[in-house]
Amino acid sequence: MDETYSISQLAKEFDITTRSIRHYEDFGLVSPSRKGKTRIYNRKDRIRLKLTLRGKRLGFPLAEIKELLDMYDTSNSNKNRQLLATIAKIEQKKSELEQQLLDIREIQDELDLAEVRCRTAIEKNSRNNRRKKLSSEK
User: What is the number of H-type helices and E-type strands within the chain?
Assistant: First the structure.
């Protein structure tokens, strides 16, 4: 018989809240069976949860994670199509991250320039204040 898990076991194992797991269930990422009000997760649910968390860590939205997971749940007859779709999502995410890196570098350059201008203005104001003080003392 397949090993089963409770929601609290999975929450503890993956260091997430039971509420998060219920959210993933509502989203269709995991589909536990029920015994009364108790959720019973199987090996497949545990793997899907693990892959969901990995996808989130990599920055994929839940809809895309579900799309990829559901693709693998269908048939094994078209593995190449599944793998190509996964590669396309990975390439798209990498491209988005590269653009974010460029944007961050540009913002850092702008901040560096603004900081230099502020420091220069402070120095200029300090010199002017010293001159004024010296002039008033004469």
Answer: 5, 2
Largest alpha-carbon pair distance within the chain? 97
Residue with tokens 């004469």, as numbered in its chain: 138
**Residue at 100: amino acid letter:** Q
Helix (H/G/I), strand (E/B), else coil: 64: helix
pLDDT above 90 for 47: yes
Output the six-digit token pair for 121: 């203005």
Query: What predicted TM-score, i.e. pTM, was given to this entire model?
Result: 0.69
Answer yes or no: are the C-beta atoms of 16 and 53 closer than 8 Å. yes
Residue 76 has pLDDT above 80, yes or no: no
Name the fold adopted by 1-61.
Answer: Multidrug-efflux Transporter Regulator; Chain: A; Domain 2 (1.10.1660)
Give the pair of three-digit tokens for residue 129. 């204040």
